[in-house]
Amino acid sequence: MDTKTVLITGATSGIGKATAYRLALSKMQLIICGRRTEELEKIREDLSKLTAVTSLCFDVSDNNQVVKSIESIPEDFKQIGILINNAGNAHGLDKIQDGDIEDWDKMIDSNVKGLLYVTKAVIGRMIEKSSGHIINIGSLAGREVYEKGNVYSASKHAVNAISKGMRIDLNKHNIKVSEINPGLVETEFSKVRFKGDPKASTVYEGYKALEAEDIAEIIEFVISRPHHVNIADLLVLPQDQATSSIINKK
Ligand code: NDP
Ligand code: 8X3
C-alpha cells in the first residue's frame, strides 16, 4: 500500500480509533481528530511509535474550528489523500413527540453539517491534485428507520444522499467516494446515546455485535483497492442482525 496521508474524524474512540491503529500498522501517515484532547494525545503518542501522526482537536459541527484546524495542519501532512468522515453519534432514543431539540441539533450538526464542513475544508487540495478518496461512515439507520430512531436515522439518510451527490460532483476530479454502513457495532456509541445510563450496555447483550476492528479492517480493504476499483457502497451487519429491530438474541 502507498504511504498516504489519511485524516480520520472521531479517532478518539470506537471505529475511528480502531481505524487509526489499523492504518498505523500499514504505515499510513495519520491526522487523527476528535474533541477529547487527552484521549487524542494518548493515541497520538502511542501511534507515533508506528508511523508519522499529528492530531487536531476540534468540534466538527463548528465550521470556524474546522477551517482553522485544517489550515493549521503541518506542511508535511497537508496533502490529504484519504478523508475518513467518521465523527458522529446518536443522542437520545425517543419518539418524535418526545424528542429533545438539543439532541436533534447535535445529531444534525455533527453527523450531517460536520461531515460537510470537514469535506469542504479538505477537498480543495484533492481537486487541485485530481486525486483523493473520501470514506463516509453512514449506517444501517441510513437505509431503514426504526422506532425512536427518527432524527438519527434522518442524519444517516442524509449521509447516504450526500455520498451519492459527492460521487456525482467529484466524478470528473478523479476522487473516489465510498460509503460504509454498519449495523450494530459495540463502541461508545450507546454510552453517548443513553447519556451514561447503564441500559447502554444492554444494547449489546445476548448476541455478538460487530467490533470496531471489523469496520477498521473493511475500511483498510476499501482504501487499498486498485485505482480503477471503487467500493462505492457497503452494508455490513452482525451475523445475528437482520434489520435494525430484528436481532437474534439468545
Ligand atoms: P463512538 O462514540 O465510539 O465514537 C464517536 C467518535 O466521534 C468519537 O471519537 C467522538 O470524539 C467523535 N465525535 C462525535 N461528535 C463529534 C463532534 N461534534 N466533533 C468531533 N468529533 C466528534 O462511536 P462509533 O465509533 O460507533 O461511531 C463512529 C461513527 O460510526 C458514527 O458516525 C456513528 O454514527 C457510526 N455508526 C456507528 C454504529 C454503531 O453501532 N456503533 C453503527 C453504524 C454507524 P470526541 O468525543 O473526542 O469528540
Ligand atoms: C448505529 C446503529 O441501529 O443503533 O448507526 O442505529 S443503530
CATH superfamily membership: NAD(P)-binding Rossmann-like Domain
- Overall spatial form: globular
**What percent of residues adopt helix (DSSP H or I)?**
25-40%
So what's the CATH class?
Answer: Alpha Beta
Number of strands: 9
Write out the distinct hetero groups bound to the structure: NADPH dihydro-nicotinamide-adenine-dinucleotide phosphate, 2-hydroxyethylsulfonic acid
Approximate strand percentage: 15-25%
Question: What is the spatial order of strands in the main beta sheet?
Answer: 3-2-1-4-5-6-9
CATH architecture: 3-Layer(aba) Sandwich
- Which regions are unreliable across 5 or more consecutive residues at pLDDT < 50? none
* CATH fold label: Rossmann fold
Question: In terms of structural class, how would the helical and strand content be classed?
Answer: alpha/beta
The helix tally amounts to 7
Radius of gyration from the CA trace?
17 Å
Describe the main β-sheet briefly.
7 strands, parallel
Mean pLDDT: 97
